[in-house]
Write a structure and sequence with these properties.
By secondary structure, the protein is of the alpha/beta class. The chain contains 16 helices and 16 strands.
Length: 409
């Protein structure tokens, strides 16, 4: 019988829905290399804020593609980042534990943060069933709740989460970090076998069906303006108000020169739309399926990324959207600071600004827009080469496969 791997990530997605597809792509790769894989994810889509497949009163649904089993589990809905978000995580954990009571025994379980409660539950199940456990660190919880959410590090809630986080580092067979800057953090917390496996695109499938001209027509992009795309969550961490305020500067100076498109959804979107209501260079669009992102990127001139100005984001993030921009051969404008800004500057693939500085961001956008087309294309080519040599999903999947093969003999 083939070794059986569980991948547990509450917000895992397939390409027909908005959101990241890392777990799905890992699962497909591992099934093609001789493993049976089961993915456990929430049916409540974080971006769309709705259930996608489950009928009323249905707790889970399983779909099968070859040896890949997709388990869509119930989790209570929520809209904003209040107490309902934590109830959402707890309900998903409960559904997961009920679902796997009589599920086929795993040989390896991979559980992800930031949902460390379900990762903790998955680790316990792995120990009880005699399976290996990998802890994948997507976001550093509870650190992000302290730095971004304003929680006190002395609160009982944070202390409990910190104890769970430390326990996971110390009791996992391997700890996988998505940001290279997290390696020292997790090792200091007790991780013995930590490895960097970054986010990144599947370059084999990340190709557009359109020419640039066709894509601009299809998506309503003005060919006479310099266009930038942000595609992702509209939450507090994303600091998109910096983009809106930067567009106020751009509108004052050259309203017909730039077209900035924000695609996605999230708890901050309504307020952002209100703030940017009359701006000529800014527009908001609804989220689209992940599989459509390459076509949309084909239509624009550059990618855009902003985050809030907190210490954690200087070393502890691995943004999918950034590597999608690289894969589409687009120069970028980033306002993150730390390792992200350093990478863009080192490889000369775009312009940078300090986070939460709208005027700096506006200048960075103007600077990139004023560069020659040849210079922009060269930046895009260098971004693609970085995606190919460092962030390619197939390359990262090969590295994961080598670990799994080693640990499962």
């Amino acid at each position: 019988m083939q070794p059986h791997i569980w991948i547990v990530n509450q917000f895992a997605n397939t390409p027909e829905f908005p959101g990241h597809t890392r777990q799905y792509e890992f699962g497909k790769f591992l099934t093609n290399t001789g493993f049976d894989v089961s993915i456990f994810a929430s049916d409540y889509n974080l971006t769309q804020r709705c259930f996608r497949k489950l009928k009323p009163y249905q707790i889970w649904l399983q779909e099968q593609t070859d040896n890949l089993f997709l388990n869509w589990l119930y989790a209570s809905p929520y809209q904003g980042n209040d107490w309902r978000r934590y109830l959402n995580m707890l309900s998903f954990t409960t559904t997961f534990l009920v679902r796997v009571l009589f599920y086929r025994k795993p040989d390896l379980v991979i559980g992800s943060s930031p949902q460390i409660i379900v990762a903790f539950a998955a680790c316990l199940v792995a120990k009880l069933k005699g399976a290996k456990f990998y802890f994948e660190v997507r976001d550093l919880w509870p650190q992000v709740l302290v730095e971004l959410g304003g929680k006190s590090s002395d609160s009982l809630f944070i202390k409990i989460l910190d104890a769970i986080e430390t326990w996971l580092y110390q009791h996992s067979d391997r700890v996988i970090v998505l940001s290279k800057g997290c390696l020292s953090y997790v090792k200091d917390k007790g991780a013995q076998n930590a490895i960097w496996l970054p986010n990144g695109p599947d370059l084999e499938t990340f190709k557009s069906d359109f020419s640039t001209e066709e894509a601009k027509v299809h998506y309503g992009i003005d060919p006479e303006r310099f266009s930038l795309l942000y595609a992702g969550a509209h939450g507090k961490a994303n600091a998109l108000y910096t983009v809106v305020k930067a567009c106020q500067f751009l509108d004052q100076q050259s309203p017909e020169k730039f077209q900035v498109i924000l695609v996605g959804d999230g708890p901050e979107k309504a307020a952002l739309m209100d703030l940017g209501r009359d701006l000529k260079c800014l527009e908001f669009r609804d989220p689209i399926p992940k599989k459509e992102i390459p076509n949309l990127l084909q239509s624009v001139d550059a990618g855009l990324l902003t985050l809030e100005d907190i210490p954690l984001f200087k070393y502890g993030v691995s943004p999918n959207k950034l590597y999608d921009y690289y894969a589409a051969s687009k120069p970028v404008v980033v306002a993150v600071g730390g390792l992200i800004n350093e990478e863009v500057e080192t490889y000369k693939i775009g312009e940078t600004a300090y986070p939460e500085k709208p005027h700096e961001l506006a200048i960075a956008i103007q600077t990139l827009g004023e560069r020659s087309k040849a210079a922009q294309l060269k930046m895009g080519e260098q971004a693609y080469q970085l995606a190919k040599t460092v962030y390619s999903r197939s390359q990262v999947s090969e590295s994961l496969y080598d670990l799994v093969k080693q640990d499962l003999n």
